Amino acid sequence: MASEGPKPDPRWRVAILDDHERSRAALRAAIWAAGGEVVGEAVRCADAAALMRRTSPDVAVCAVGLPDGDGVEVARQLIEGGCPVVLFTSHTRQELVDRARSAGVMSYLLKPLRSAELAPVLDLAVARFSETRDLRRSLEERKIIERAKGRLMARYHLSEEEAFHRLRRAAMDSRRPMVEIAKALLVSESVASDVPTH
Prior knowledge:
This protein is of the alpha/beta class. It has seven helices and seven strands, in the order βαβαβββαβαβααα. It folds into two domains: 101 residues, Rossmann fold (3-Layer(aba) Sandwich); 57 residues, Orthogonal Bundle (Arc Repressor Mutant, subunit A), CATH 1.10.10.10. Helix 1 links the parallel strand 1 and strand 2. Helix 3 runs parallel beside helix 4, helix 5 packs across helix 7 and helix 6 crosses helix 7.
């Protein structure tokens, strides 16, 4: 008997947070049919954090109404923990949409689930979350580089351009990203300023 090759990676690894068995069953079937994998399920807000730690999913699908609390608040916590969330709801009230947007929710699926909608919604949520995280990281790195440039300018009386060139040259010489050089410079400056002068 010929052995099967390695199983392909799932399209997404999905965690489901919903207390309705019928809704969870519909999601499971649609996720599997689209090439995804359900890595875990929970029915209460209280179990969401443990579910995320145990499964590290690519995306979570979270019902709005849960027996022990608010699915939008759980979504906010999951998003802050680094997981994109798609809300699964039968409601489209503006108040809910506004709360979900401010929580950072990436997309919606409406109950009852239409299987054909699932794959594009999950693809979009995962891609958008990744773009947002990359943008945030790039802004944070830019701030660090600006602070390091400012320190160089103050210490060595350099122009902004000269300070930038020094950072860039140090990065090229050491084959390290400029943000690493900037962080190292800021750390060494703060250590130097903590050393007593007497």
